[in-house]
Amino acid sequence: MAEKDEIFKRTHSCGELDIRELNREVTLMGWVHSRRDHGGLIFIDLRDRDGITQIVLNPEIDKISHEMAQSIRNEFVLAIKGKVSARPKDMINPKLKTGEIEVYADNLRILNESRSLPFPLDEHSGISENLRLKYRYLDLRRPFLQGNLILRHKVVKRVRDLLDKKGFIEIETPFLTKSTPEGARDYLVPSRVNPGKFYAMPQSPQLFKQILMVSGFDRYFQIVKCFRDEDLRADRQPEFTQIDMEMSFIEREDIFLLIEEMMAEIFREIKGINIDTPFPILGYKEAIERFGIDKPDIRYGLELKDITDIAKETEFQVFSKTVEEGGKIKGINVKLGSRFSRKELDDLTGMVIGYGAKGLAWIKITEEGYKSPITKFFSKEMLDSIAEALKGEKGDLLLFVADSPEVVTSSLCQLRIHLGERLELPDKDKYGFVWITDFPLLEYDEAEKRYIAMHHPFTAPVDEDLRLFDEDPARIRAKAYDLVLNGQEIGGGSIRIHLRDIQQKMFNALGIDEKEAILRFGFLLEALEYGAPPHGGIALGLDRLIMILAGAASIRDVIAFPKTQKAACLMTDAPSEVDEKQLKELKLKVERD
RNA sequence: GGGGUCGUAGUUCAAUCGGUUAGAGCACCGGCCUGUCACGUCGGAAGUUGCGGGUUCGAGUCCCGUCGGCCCCGCCA
Q1: How far is the C-alpha of A426 from the C-alpha of A416, rounded, in Å?
Q2: What is the ipTM of this complex?
């Protein structure tokens, strides 16, 4: 029996006791994960972020504690003193790290009580996400989310240590900065001392890190929040974190080496997995041709094959007419797909129609030969060469879309992703890293009737393409690269323009005249005139990387306080209206309809 | 801006073709229980079927609108 005012000082976490601490007097503090009252004997699973320890309350050990324990409910916060005891052999719980021992409480203090929870915290009940987000502090008690955030901490620590070792300096850049109309929509912050003027939250620290290169910091990094006011997705939040890097006097390959080393270390030290380096490199054009997308999941095949030349001579009007009109025919081979039912094929057809295709042609290769509603339009030789082009064998299903190149590419790409998921083609234990390079520098924006930068306006063109600025800007390749992992873009960067006149050429190509360029980016242009070194960099999407490492289906599961699809925080109820007084100070008026 | 999907007890779900008093598990409350660990057992309480309107003798169910969660297209240099 302890004295009432005895001092409780935590000696161990709830996850670290084992048989070696036998008979030790310990003090644990934590939350009641569950209570099992047997009348004479009460068991409490005490939980903290480190684990769960079973506490036994036996009236023969301490009558007062046992009585107190009868009023204890889930998520009460307790301090418990007691002796570490070995569990009887057949009572060992192999599911717990601490399952060989239990603590017989001889003194108990209730540090705080808890109302009964709005939803259970156990792992086996799925709870609607709006509730979880409203009570985020409770959701964050669950081991899955705690584990994800701890994983995130470990990755960030590794990255900091590695970059420090490599001579990188971590430098903070402003969150209140200048709005630049290129790129994503900005989050704006009104300036009270400059009424009518606004700061923008950075979409990335791009210009600042380039300026730091001009200042001679040589190697910069920052683990930094970025803000983009665009619509959300399962892997997109309005504020997200980048591992942002920039280096002087380097080539693209220096960046590849650094990032490959970083990824290899993270996967080795945190997941215990050895990944192959160097990562394969895929040109943008080839990626689009083979996979229909610039962020392919290369862990499985189902590659797109062009059969335009083989199939254009057919009687089948859908094909021949498409080719006449400048379209293309591409197909994919679904290995062992000939067992697909008519209904399944109809569903796939519906899917590609959803992406703009007019239909989906299919050919099954069976024991009895080709089976398809369209075989009658093709000669045996033609069918053989189509099958050969797609490496079709008995049992396979060949799927084709004939349309404009854009529709063929996007619909077959979506079909490939869909079938990949449905047939569980990617090996879940594999990590498919790939560099995508040689992006076009510019793309034509139909809505704005001008070229826009595919990466950003500071990306350097490939040297031998410089002459194309005057001839054919669309064909200029950029010294830009993306890092793709399992079909997700997890990073991107480029070698930057460090020469003022090339930067001006770039602005010209974007339809930004000298005057406007100075207005928007004058500070950078000027900086380039004061001895800017050749430089380049990359930014990795930390949240997406953690998602993949954690096996999380949503970016919200790796962010402590994420926002919903409507960019709201259900816990704090942000965004919200503000006082008229605040608006007045900012000289702002809200228009209501 | 558009498409899809979901919303019923604290929670997870059920409720036939539109038809009696909207049910069940878990949680909650009370009793019993000294080896449980998703404890067991007996009993109890618990509902604005997201919200508003409409159709109907009758709506959780059908229709219209609206709010919210999720997934996707557009958008995201």
Answers
A1: 12
A2: 0.93
